[in-house]
Amino acid sequence: MAWIGLWDSPLDEVWTVVSQTKRLSQWMPVVERCTDLAGDEGIPGYVRLVSGFMFPRHDGERSWIKERLVAMDPTSHSYVYKMEASNVGLDGSVNSLKFVDYGDGSTLVNWSFEIDPLEELVECKIRHYHFSVVLKNATKLCTSKAILTVNGKFPGPTLYAREGDNVLVRVTNHVQYNVTIHWHGVRQLRTGWSDGPAYITQCPIQPGQNFVYNFTLTGQRGTLLWHAHISWLRTTMHGAIVILPKKGVPYPFPKPDKEKGMVEADTEAVVNQAMQTGLPPNISDAHTINGHPGPVPNCSSDDAYTLHVETGKTYLLRVVNAAVNDELFFKIAYHNLTVVEVDAAYTKPYNTDTLFLGPGQTTTALLKADKGVGKYLIAISPFMDTIVAVDNVTGVGYLRYNRTLALTPTTLVSIPSVNATPVTSVFSDSLRSLNSKEYPANVPLTVDHSLFFTIGVGINPCTTCINGSRAVASINNISFLMPTTALLQAHYYGRNGVYRLAYNSTVQLVIQGNNIVAPESHPTHLHGFNFFVVGRGVGNFDPEKDPSEFNLVDPVERNTVSVPTAGWTAIRFRADNPGVWFFHCHLEVHTTWGLKMAFLVENGEGPDESIEPPPSDLPKC
């Protein structure tokens, strides 16, 4: 959804122009030409061809759209049209425009569009999106405050594309903060400039500036997410990425009747608190499902998300954990889920009643609506199996069957305890790669680099901190300090580097949690790669015994993995993506405290094995 301001243009005058649909260019300057194709102007069924610069194209050519009028209502000053064909990848989208009197002789246009990705997302080489970073007043938990959003939405817009598509996202910064966007889990093959972490692959987009993220979705299909990757802005700046299979390629599981996205998040009130006090940040105000917290104590508003289902139908749920500092359980009362994909990698079907996701992880599961009429509670609740303050607030929503009466009582759900380690272990240990002929698990069987990282949280003296000390997080007892220029730019121009890996070398990394202060689980994310989780366990890793138990046949493939509390996780990957790639804990507080580092993958031979030159609009520090 977007708002367009037509200043010094009264509503009646604007509507007179708008209702004469061929005069589109008079109120939308980016339109150069509007041509009648069929039907009568202003009457549903009317078809027009619009051309101009409505959507940016990488080749600088004009965009064109064939539009059919669906409805027009002079009373509410609104109309709806469908994009039947275009050269910008929006075929099938349904657009709604409502014109509102803003006062002072001005008019606001509320412009939104929806697309059914299952039916209408056509084969296309290039997808264009425009993300405007803006402040928006939001009312949640019976209070109102301004939050940072993309296009005024919380959560932000879902990015739809197909495997193999080239995606261009123009991000314009309309706020007073520096911003970047990370496309979490997107491989970014040779396009590290578009990965997004501030001061790792790019300098931030400064206020009033813009940058076009340009990447191709190679060899991936499923659910991912995007989020801000500077300071703690991802608290409200996040959304889902849905990568559909290539046109005509079926899912490797029964086709669902409908798809639903569910973005889980937490909402925190923090301004540098984690650094100033030396302690963990404030507890979250709430956990949300698609921006809705559900009923909350001391607030009469029941702002809950409702998933409407029809008996006998199968739904594909795309569940995203966009929380800042919480690993979460997801459960629907008396309904089982069949996991078919995690982190945009297909899995063997796994039946369960509880999903477990760390921040940054995604899980796609089939839901069979087989309970008849009724209303069932959906719950997201935190996991923490150590003596650390936890956001122990359950976010709730409802699954509601069609024809359920308004007074029907809600069937409640039994959620796991906050320290339900066995539930997390069973879920994590049960996931397996699909490893089919079409989607093989190409696990590296030999290892060129065998690495052992210890990770954890400790305490350092701090004379400027309120408590005289502060928490620090580290990898191999080294706490990472953010640079003042982007590491990828420094590497590209030959100035310095970090941990180097030769192109196409194979890596085994054992991540060991330690007990410096209080051991806890660490959801760890590697940018630029998928990896195979070949082993995990509690206690200390035994290099003599544990490797013999590694799964090298069908281990789950991920981009983010939870290292168990006081335990270890072993991953393997092939360093086939040149560039500088961030590796960090995805609990934002631990990243802030220093639990992060970067890999530098060197160029291979020739341009196809080398990082592309930096784009001309790359932000400067």
Automatic annotation (TrEMBL):
Keywords: Apoplast, Copper, Glycoprotein, Lignin degradation, Metal-binding, Oxidoreductase, Repeat, Secreted. GO terms for molecular function: copper ion binding; hydroquinone:oxygen oxidoreductase activity; protein phosphatase inhibitor activity. Its main location: secreted. Pfam families: Cu-oxidase, Cu-oxidase_2, Cu-oxidase_3, Polyketide_cyc2. It catalyses: 4 hydroquinone + O2 = 4 benzosemiquinone + 2 H2O. Its cofactor is Cu cation. InterPro entries: Cu-oxidase-like_N, Cu-oxidase_2nd, Cu-oxidase_C, Cu-oxidase_fam, Cu_oxidase_CS, Cu_oxidase_Cu_BS, Cupredoxin, CuRO_1_LCC. Its EC number is 1.10.3.2. GO terms for cellular component: apoplast. One of its GO terms (biological process) is lignin catabolic process. The keyword Metal-binding applies. It is found in: Secreted, Extracellular space, Apoplast. It comes from the Eukaryota. Binds 4 Cu cations per monomer. The keyword Signal does not apply. Residues 136-247, 265-402, 497-604 form the Plastocyanin-like domain. Lignin degradation and detoxification of lignin-derived products. PANTHER family: LACCASE, MULTI-COPPER OXIDASE. Belongs to the multicopper oxidase family. This is Laccase.
